[in-house]
Amino acid sequence: MKANDYVEDRNLDVPQLNELGKPISRKTKTRAEWPMIVGLLVLSLIPLASGALRLTQLAGGPEIMPAAARFDASPLPLVVHILSAIVYGILGPFQFATGFRRRKPSWHRAVGRLLVLCGLLVGLSGLWMTLFYPHAPGDGELLYAFRLLFGSAMVVSIALGFAVILRGDVIRHRAWMMRGFAIGLGAGTQVVTLLGGELILGPPSELSRALLMGAAWVINLAVAEWAIRKRTVPPARMASTVVSHQQ
User: Fold this and answer.
1) Taking the mean position of all CA atoms in its chain, how far away is CA 27?
2) Which residues contact 125 (CB under 8 A, 6 or more apart)?
3) Which of the chain's termini has less CB crowding within 10 Å, N or C?
4) Whether 143 contacts 209, CB under 8 Å
5) For the segment 73-111, what is each residue's pLDDT rounded down to a tens digit?
6) Which of 96, 112, 99, 88 is nearest to 29 (CA)?
7) Cα(79)–Cα(69) distance, rounded to whole angstroms?
């Protein structure tokens, strides 16, 4: 990799302003990022816990979760998917914390390489299971199509994020990695959308289940795009804003 692969993008050299037009200190920005990190970790908690219980069951532990015979013939893709998702879900949020990244750049680089591998394994194993495992009860063709679409989008996003950082493009690297992580976090948001849908509409049908799960991916991507555009402010516009507030 090039020496400047992980150099901070040029926008960080220009002060960011709060609602009063005053520059935001780095310490304030770092404190403001911790709720985001905790929120992402909490959102990952339920699917990661479910995956850990499934691994325990596959290893011969107590049958805490409902049996799933469709995994028995070929459990390896599921094991790869769960283990990769655990690493991806726990370490991923810290990669988006600017203060943490500045203090530990070598950690960011090393963990980033690991997360690229884990993210690709999550996406590719998810696609394999969608294509070759029998459908679970309640799953239909629409959900099958959603899984192929968003699983492919996750793999492509992570691959593009890795490719652009090799050219030293930090801004696009961060954007693609945020998109990939947002898709990977879909399982956590699906817990919320499915629970909310059942509370409002009752037990989901095959169609409503697919729509609620698809909505979770769309919500995550919409939030990621909002965060990308919020952080990627054109330097000229930001500089002019600073000057105008200083006059």
Assistant:
1) 25
2) 77, 78, 80, 81, 84
3) C
4) yes
5) 789 999 999 999 999 999 999 998 887 778 888 889 999
6) 99
7) 15
Please give the single-letter amino acid code of residue 68: A
User: What does the pLDDT average to over 217-232?
Assistant: 91
CB 232 within 8 A of CB 11: yes
Question: CA-CA distance, 241 to 171, in Å (whole number)?
Answer: 21
Residue 18 scores a pLDDT above 80? no
Q: CA geometry: angle at 99 spanning 20 and 106, to 5°?
A: 155
Which range among 40-54, 154-168, 221-235 has the greatest average pLDDT? 154-168
End-to-end CA distance of the chain: 43
Cα–Cα distance between 117 and 95 in angstroms, integer?
14
Residue 7 has pLDDT above 70, yes or no: no
What are the angstrom distances between the C-alpha of 85 and each of 13, 22, 56, 104?
A: 34, 40, 15, 23
Determine the average pLDDT of the residues in 44-63.
85
Distances (CA, A) of 75 to 65, 72, 98, 132, 174: 16, 6, 38, 12, 33
Q: Which residues contact 138 (CB under 8 A, 6 or more apart)?
A: 204, 206, 209
Contact between residue 39 and residue 188 where contact means Cβ atoms under 8 Å apart: no
17: β partners: 23
